Amino acid sequence: MGKSVLWFRRDLRLADNPALLAAAESARVVQPLFVLDPTLYDQAGPPRQAYLLRSLRALDDALGGHLLLRHGDPVRQVVEVAKRAGADQVHIAADYGRYGVRRDAAVEKALAEDGITLHRTGSPYAVAPGRVRKPDGTPYRVFTPFSRAWQEHGWRRPADLPPDLEYARTKGDPFPDEPDLDGLTLPEAGERAALARWADFADTALASYDTDRDRPDRPGTSRLSPALKYGELHPRTLLADLAHRRSRGAEVFRNEICWREFYADVLHHNPASAWESLDPVTGGIEVDGGPETDDAFDAWANGRTGYPIVDAGMRQLLSVGWMHNRLRMITASFLVKDLHLAWQRGAEHFLHYLIDGDVASNNHGWQWTAGTGTDAAPYFRVFNPTLQGKKVDPDGEYVRRWVPELRDVPGPAVHEPWKLRQPVPGYPAPIVDHDAERKETLRRYEKARGRS
Do 242 and 322 share a domain, yes or no? Predict the structure, then answer.
């Protein structure tokens, strides 16, 4: 019983961490390690970089200052750390992303050359991608039957708390400075903050989650997506708590966890769907492109479309690195179905700013809205931004919070400022006519389907 290395990735916590328990069982001393991989870190936008660094600092504190941070290629860094520690085992939670699978295979091969074994225990999901299949063994492409099979499959109970471990103390690379966030504010990062956020939500807003989750003007969502992204808590922890709660809100929240696992499963079976349309028929729709679309994209990205609910969502994203889920659908629909731009362009923008940016959930959510993904026939869904605003923000409180130009417009009139007697100073007129663009979108979809 010598030393083992625990290589943290998307499991930045101590509780309910099977890989940590496996590392502790295999050795007397555990070396905690995180590799700041430029392939992932450099592609993340400043909000996600800053949140990750704060989460790592919180983990380091929980480990008593023993987290070893290294910068560079994981293949070289993990092997070097294991050899210097005299470890014969490296422990990880399995990664099912396309890049993660390739990276781990390369690390495993390099470790084996020095007689060191790589052990995968657990994953970022309650049910690992690939486990839930149809009776004929093929993967699911539609959510509802997947969700039934997922619940029938079930999941393990949360892992025990780690014992009192001896962690190696090794000098690593310094933490990089946080990027300039240009006024953007982030939530508190780390396992302790995530657990406190869950406890507060579970005891307050969870019971009404089924009705309030679509209301951005209310604190009706958990705001736990960044914590799940980095594994500051495990979905199995949430599911174990939900098992004791009988409200409709708890049932719907469990279903939302399943959506996250469904999209991970779809990406696992269809790696190319990260950036290619899953449905080649609707994915062949004509989209606008070229420099002439830049002004429209910039208006959308900066919350200057003239449609208040769209602009509020986009400004929330720029301000806090997060956007209410309902607004993600509304703003995505506007980009692909009112401006006729490619969903990939919007998905890339979201990933740049979202602190919870996850390729599987983000990009397949965009495909669901664009009508090119897993749903049976969503191509004809075109959100009317005005009606959506009135529905999800009936009194206009959310819009007024994020679009200060409209702060003095009372009640639901805020959703149609073009109907006011006087133009609102500083706020743009709608950049497109929604009714006309909806008809154009349906025409393009029918043309694409006619070519199939």
Answer: no
- Closest CA relative to residue 154, chosen from 254, 18, 226, 252: 254
Taking all residues of the chain, what is their mean pLDDT, rounded to a whole number?
95
Residue 439, CA atoms < 13 Å, CB-side half-sphere: 4
What the block records as the tokens of 143 is: 């959510």
Identify the residue whose tokens are 């130009």: 405
0.70 surpassed by pTM: yes
Q: How large is the average pLDDT for residues 427-433? A: 97
Token readout for 346 is 């919007």
The answer as to whether 276 is a domain residue is no
pLDDT of residue 163: 81
107 shares its domain with 202: no
CA distances 167 to 28, 30, 432, Å, are: 9, 5, 59
pLDDT class for 217, splitting at 50, 70, 90?
very high
| Beta bridge pairs of residue 36 | 71
Best CA proximity match to 300, nearest among 412, 428, 436, 437: 428
Per residue in 184-197, pLDDT (tens digit) is: 889 999 999 999 99
Rounded (10°) angle between helices 235-242 and 248-269 = 150
Query: In one letter, which amino acid is 19?
Result: A
CATH number, position 248:
1.25.40.80
Nearest-angstrom CA–CA distance, 190 and 108:
28
Task: Extract the tokens encoding 95.
Answer: 């990664």
User: Alpha-carbon distance 333 to 384, whole Å?
Assistant: 9
Domain region containing 428: 282-450
- Residue 381 CA: distances (Å) to CA of 113, 270, 330, 438: 54, 24, 11, 9
Question: Domain tally for the chain?
Answer: 3
